[in-house]
Amino acid sequence: MPFSGKPEIDGFLDHVWRHRWLVVATLGALVLAVSLLGGYLGGWGWVGIAASTVPAPKDMTYQPPRKLWDWLQLLIIPAALAAAGLWFTRQQNRRQSALTLDKQREDLLAAYFDRLSDLLLKGELRQMPIGRAQGQGPAVARTRTLAALRALDPVRKGALAKFLYESGLIVGNMCVIDLSEANLETLYSQPPA
């Protein structure tokens, strides 16, 4: 939510807006704390914590009016259950998102291996010095490799690089696939088991 005005005020309001639930919870806790302290120390009767001074009639059961503490007892458990449910749902959503992303990356790597294996088996990727005309195979393989490297996590990038090296596609000056524009900073290769 954009605000207009002085930059320092805008920054503060943006910070408050990003953390609005924390602000609401803090204000609610503050109001509750003041009410409870007022009930105990100030003897505020409407809070319902201080001792009751209203005598009960002898001929009937006396039901005192509902006080703040009575309403809080009715609201605390449902609010706690709702908060726990929201927290649990968020955790599940985060876990599911992470699993989905992991599955997508695994599928991407498997598809990449399949496509490059097909190109290798068909002989469309042959070793030639870089810069020579090599046909469409290396260009397709380079495009697929760069796209896969952008989408993969560091461990899978390491598996991809290992595949390219072991298949002889990135060895010495006879590289078939040019990785000069590839981002290999986060490459991580797992040690052999």
Protein model, in words:
With 193 residues, the protein is mainly α. The protein has helices at residues 7-18, 20-41, 68-121, 136-151, 154-166. Helix 3 (68-121) runs antiparallel to helix 4 (136-151). It starts with 6 loop residues before the first helix and ends in a 27-residue tail after the last helix.
SSE layout and pairing:
Elements: H1 7-18, H2 20-41, H3 68-121, H4 136-151, H5 154-166
Helix pairs in contact: 3-4
Please state the CA-atom Rg, rounded to the nearest Å: 33 Å
The residue ranges in which pLDDT falls below 50 over 5 or more consecutive positions are none
The fraction of residues assigned to DSSP E strands is: under 5%
Main sheet specs: none
Short description:
The relative contact order is 0.06.
Question: What characteristics describe this protein?
Answer:
193 residues; mainly alpha; 5 helices
